[in-house]
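Ticket #4471: structure export looks truncated?
Reporter: QA, pipeline team
Priority: medium

Steps to reproduce: submit the single chain below to the structure queue and open the exported record.
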Amino acid sequence: MQYEARSAPRRTARSRRHSLRGRVATGLLAGALVAGTASITPFVAGAAGASTTARAAAGYSGKITYWFWGESDIPGITKWMQQRIAIYEKLHPKVSVDLVPQSNTTIISSFKLAAQSKTGPTIDTQWATLDTLVPAFSGDVAPLNGLVPKSEMSHWINTNENTYKGQVMAMPLYLIGVPLVWNKALFKKAGLNPNKGPATWSQFLSDAKALKAHGITPLGMGNQDGYFGAWMFAIYMKQELNSLSQVTKGIANQGNAQSIFESKLKSLYTMMQALVKDGYVNSNVSSLSLNQGWQLFPEKKAAMSFTTDGNVLSWAKAVGEANIGVGRPPIWGTGSLASTYDVTQSSDEFITSWAPNKQLDANFLAWLHTPSNMAALNKETDAFPADNRFPVSSITDPLARQLYKLDTTGKSIWLENYLPPQVDSDADIPAGQMILSNSGSPAKAVALWTTQLNLWRTEQPTQFQQFKTWAASS
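Actual output as written to the record:
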């Protein structure tokens, strides 16, 4: 989700573009934790006749330059990664890993510059799906197929978010869900059932009305950076759809798909506008960033919020876990996808096409998924690893177990993942800002989308054609 999100969840999940962005995750993850090994079998694709020793040496000698992002999604993950690197370098003295943390504001632009000169990272982090696939379209990403065995990748969750022409382009590291969280004490103060959050939109509006009547801000969020609006698109535009092709065909302007897509956008923005006009969102929503708006919940200044798994667990420490309720976002739309959840890998790790020793990079990435490393990721950061070997039994906190179940049961889609980066930044985000700041009508917000979609197709004709090819095969 950049959740500082590309918005998340894009991306904190930019949010989740952000930070948390296309995928469909299915199945309840389970399995026994295999005893972690200090090293892994070298995944080296050598020429016929090459000795095992020579091939192993090729994969465990050299320098890795790793441009890494993740702290906004998972506080503490940079420290975890630094610890993994120290262990790996000790296991393989001929390998050095230079970790270069990236920021929310430079993660995309820095890589674009690096790609132009084919210098910089040998491993890079980007937000999931189109923020990763657009560079792949241009040949800047090396497929992992042939570098990492299928038997290993079969344990990775959500690889379909980053698959292009049948090839896995990036490795997922963690999962992030975006639940609705509510303060049970404030619900009780408003005369509501504290143990039952709203499951439908009518219930959500009824609860919001009761909370407001008791002087309690129903929903606390921030949209100065446009990320709350992008989250509303990801969560609720999806609920109007019967299939993801309604979005991809709309963006590609196939047949009358764009007009249908835009009519659904208008319904979404009409709903969002009503939340503001009815006073169900904090009045300063447009003056606060997503992260600032989130602080209203642990400060007990808002009864509900949409947030990330990590924030839920952190807020529980501030308000008391007994006062925290979590559930799926209330269902507003009537499409077939309305019941899907909102979990994504948020960001991912890939090998650049110019990396001089791709096997070296691939071996390190695969090693990060060893059970001992995945267990350490959860223990040290509370993050849920994107690996089906991670055992549910290792999660002992009841609230964390509830979140994990939400993340791994049924199907999930983070719709923002399906937007080309230019469309996300120039249409999705500013249109949401227009509505939540009450500075424009739903019709004007949709008109902005129309303009920006046409600009993207005109300015990026090659990317547009590549998008259509990808969308048709996804």
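Status: closed, not a bug. The export was complete when the record was re-opened. Leaving a note from the reviewer for reference: The mean pLDDT is 89.
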